[in-house]
Design goal:
Blueprint lengths: L3 H4 L4 H4 L16 H4 L18 H25 L6 H27 L4 E2 L1 H12 L6 H14 L16 H12 L11 H4 L1 H4 L2 H8 L1 H20 L2 H27 L32 H6 L15 H11 L3 E2 L6 H5 L23
Antiparallel strand pairs: 1-2
Helix pairs in contact: 4-8, 5-6, 5-7, 5-12, 5-13, 6-11, 12-13
The structure holds zinc ion (2 copies).
Length: 361
């Protein structure tokens, strides 16, 4: 295993952006100067060919599949004595609330401003996202804006390409992008990356209340399960499945966007990083795995813009728009996106696309 000495630390100078704030919302192409001089021993990921070795694919597939299979195998074993329909219903409900909180709220609204929201809905999105236990709004937004600014280059908090692109370096990079980066002691500057939300009293307060919201996320399923069946055992099984397993599952799905969606999948749109569209993660991630389009057009409210690409978060934004909870939604723009499709590709854009000039609501 790697020691901390050879993992290295990201260049601190590169972590401090010259132009913060709104600049972080616009396309993710890192300025060459931000990359620093290329070290001779260190690969420049954007210049290297796509890795497609069978070994790497088998390895990541194993890491993803084996724990999932173990979890699925536990379900019939536990059925009837440690797991019941109540647990499944509560787990799915909390998964959807927290997952949409991350996808619609933390990511598309708070990080990228893909739409505007009325105050109660803004608060609801921040609370729902907090239930995912992925950190307070301010931390998440700051990290993610930094990711876009330096995407797959020096300064990106979680690029799988940070150690190079040979087989060993990529294996280490995938583990780092998935989970290792969470332990990096370098914290993203909130003053630099999210001054907009730092100035918002509601969001500052909700960020401070994050530990309380974590407690709600863990205890509410137990309370609901216990009251529903009126038993302590039901409270415990609901806590196990709808709190612990549900949180772990959503964590892995979110982290997969950082690891898998920057390594494997389709490059349907022109990007200068390694972001890719991964169709098999689309439903579980509420559309977040259409990550290649997202890097090509970060403020777009719909990530699965092509016909047939399921994007539950985009449909939820569409419903919220009809209800008047959100407005000024940045729906896919045909004129802008057609030019971004890679040469030789001309798949049709899906619904919610603005076919003519931009018009409000
Ligand atoms: Zn990304
Ligand atoms: Zn993003």
């Amino acid at each position: 295993m790697a020691t901390s000495a050879n993992i290295g630390t990201p260049g601190t100078a590169a972590l401090v952006p010259p132009a913060p704030g709104a600049a972080a919302l616009v396309p993710p192409v890192p300025a060459p100067s931000a990359l620093g001089p290329p070290a001779p021993s260190r690969a420049r990921p954007e210049l290297e060919p796509e890795p497609s070795g069978l070994g790497e694919r088998i390895l990541i597939g194993t890491f993803v599949a084996v724990p999932m299979i173990a979890l699925l195998a536990a379900i019939p074993l536990a059925w009837g004595w440690g797991l019941g329909w109540h647990d499944i219903v509560i787990a799915v409900a909390f998964y959807v609330i927290a997952g949409l909180g991350i996808s619609m709220g933390y990511h598309r609204y708070f990080t990228h401003g893909s739409f505007k929201a009325v105050r109660p809905f803004k608060i609801a999105l921040a609370v729902a996202g907090s239930l995912a236990i992925e950190g307070p709004v301010l931390t998440w937004v700051a990290d993610h804006r930094r990711h876009h600014k330096y995407s797959d280059a020096e300064g990106d908090p979680h690029s799988p390409w940070r150690f190079g692109n040979d087989w060993k370096a990529l294996t280490k990079g995938l583990a780092y992008a998935h989970i290792g980066w969470l332990f990096d002691p370098n914290r993203t500057s909130q003053e630099k990356f999210c001054p907009d939300w730092l100035a918002d009293d509601d969001i500052r307060r909700l960020s401070r209340w994050f530990p309380g919201l974590v407690a709600v996320s863990l205890l509410a399923p137990a309370l609901i399960g216990g009251l529903w069946a009126w038993s302590w055992t039901a409270a415990i099984t609901a806590f196990f499945w709808a709190s612990l397993v549900r949180v772990a599952f959503l964590h892995h799905v979110t982290w997969s966007i950082n690891s898998i969606c920057h390594t494997f999948g389709e490059e349907e749109f022109e990007v200068r990083d390694k972001s890719r569209n991964v169709n098999w993660l689309a439903i579980l991630s509420f559309g977040e795995s259409w990550h290649n389009l997202h890097h090509a057009d970060p403020t777009c409210a719909r990530h699965g813009v092509l016909k047939g690409q399921v994007d539950v978060a985009a449909r939820s934004i569409w419903i919220a728009e009809k209800l008047g909870w959100v407005y000024d939604v940045r729906w896919p723009d045909e004129a802008r996106l057609t030019g971004k499709q890679r040469a030789g590709r001309s798949r049709k854009l899906g619904s919610m696309t603005k076919r003519a000039v931009r018009s409000p609501g």
